[in-house]
Inverse folding.
């Protein structure tokens, strides 16, 4: 049966807040994974730009004794070349983790706010959380 307008509004806010929190959790997880996987690229490009005389021209000891302009240019190029495969690896890690934890199944439909009797799932019924109906065969993507 349909909920009253005020109850529907309250449930809409609860579901919207919960979906926003799950979105932020997914975003944070993606940020952490991409930062860890892309750390070699970040370091290589940073040192390349830091020691190049046309960019920052740092007076650090390693810039004067080890890296000249040619090696700094090589570091910059190497950093951008290894970025593409590392982005693919980071996305594969995120997708497999999100699929294993069923993070995309945590989003609840707004139809739970409209009608009484919508079933919320417990974590024991198929992962961290599950969608309406608790179908363990339901997939977020194929």
């Amino acid at each position: 049966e349909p909920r009253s307008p005020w109850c529907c509004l309250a449930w809409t806010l609860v579901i919207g807040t919960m979906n926003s929190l799950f979105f932020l959790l997914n975003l944070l997880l993606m940020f952490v994974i991409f930062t860890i996987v892309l750390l070699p690229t970040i370091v290589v490009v940073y040192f390349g730009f830091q020691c190049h005389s046309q960019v920052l021209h740092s007076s650090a000891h390693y810039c004067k004794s080890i890296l000249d302009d040619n090696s700094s240019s090589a570091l910059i190029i190497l950093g951008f070349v290894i970025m593409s495969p590392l982005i693919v690896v980071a996305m594969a890690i995120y997708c497999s983790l999100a699929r294993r934890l069923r993070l995309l199944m945590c989003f609840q439909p707004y139809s739970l706010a409209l009608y009484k009797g919508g079933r919320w799932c417990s974590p024991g019924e198929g992962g961290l959380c599950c969608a309406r109906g608790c179908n363990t065969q339901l997939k977020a993507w194929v």
About this structure: Residues 125 and 134 are 7 Å apart (CA to CA).
